[in-house]
Design goal:
This protein is 42% helix and 17% strand. The strands form 2 sheets. Strands 3-7-6-4-5 form a 5-stranded parallel beta sheet. The longest helix is centred in the first third of the chain and has 16 residues. The chain starts with a strand and ends in a 25-residue tail after the last strand. The chain has one domain: Rossmann fold (3-Layer(aba) Sandwich), CATH 3.40.50.300. It is an alpha/beta fold. Helix 6 packs parallel to helix 8.
Length: 192
């Protein structure tokens, strides 16, 4: 199966044969309150703390304060990792507000930010939380789909293992927009 990137979540890593395939785009979907953000936080935190892999967590809906509270509840202290440049928690909404821009970001905004941030930070693990917020930027499902596929190609062109988070609606489709799952690694193509 090639190189695996352990999440540090023992049960998950055992279940999927050691973690995510290296340098892939992976998707985590679930209803509100199902622990998606917590999983993503563990993925980047464990990468930095246990495996020496710098991580970047981009939050688009929640705030950095909420992330820090969640991490504190699980005794994940990001401060020393941030000071060492091994972990970055970025609240994109806060950045956008300071620029007097609209608070919703599109994939081109994310690509532009990551084009600058990835090489500078040495990021090996990336979490984007959540695609549900990005979908609000686009006027049509077709436009969302086109930009999502282009963004996934951009991510695959970098040496980074990515976890995209999206929500599902209970009793509804697998993902909020019904297309997100098509950009992630799958069992048939080199994914989990």
């Amino acid at each position: 199966m090639g190189d695996r990137v352990a999440t540090g979540i023992v049960g998950f890593d055992r279940l999927v044969g050691g973690g995510f395939p290296h340098a892939t785009v992976n998707l985590l979907s679930g209803p509100a309150g199902s622990g998606k953000s917590l999983f993503g936080l563990h993925f980047v935190y464990n990468g930095a703390a246990l495996y020496g892999e710098p991580g970047l967590y981009l939050v688009l809906e929640e705030t950095r304060d909420n992330l820090e509270r969640a991490m504190a509840a699980y005794k994940l202290d990001a401060s020393p990792l941030e000071a060492a440049g091994k972990l970055l928690l970025v609240d994109m909404g806060e950045l956008r507000e300071s620029d007097d821009a609209k608070s919703v970001v599109g994939f081109d905004d994310l690509r532009d930010f990551l084009t600058a941030a990835l090489p500078r930070s040495g990021t090996k693990r990336l979490v984007i939380d959540s695609l549900s917020a990005v979908g609000l930027y686009y006027a049509s499902p077709e436009q969302l789909r086109e930009r999502l596929f282009a963004f996934a190609r951009f991510l695959r062109s970098h040496d980074v293992t990515t976890l995209l988070i999206t929500e599902s609606i209970e009793g509804g489709p697998l993902t909020r927009y019904g297309i997100e799952q098509f950009v992630a690694a799958s069992r048939r193509s080199r994914g989990i």
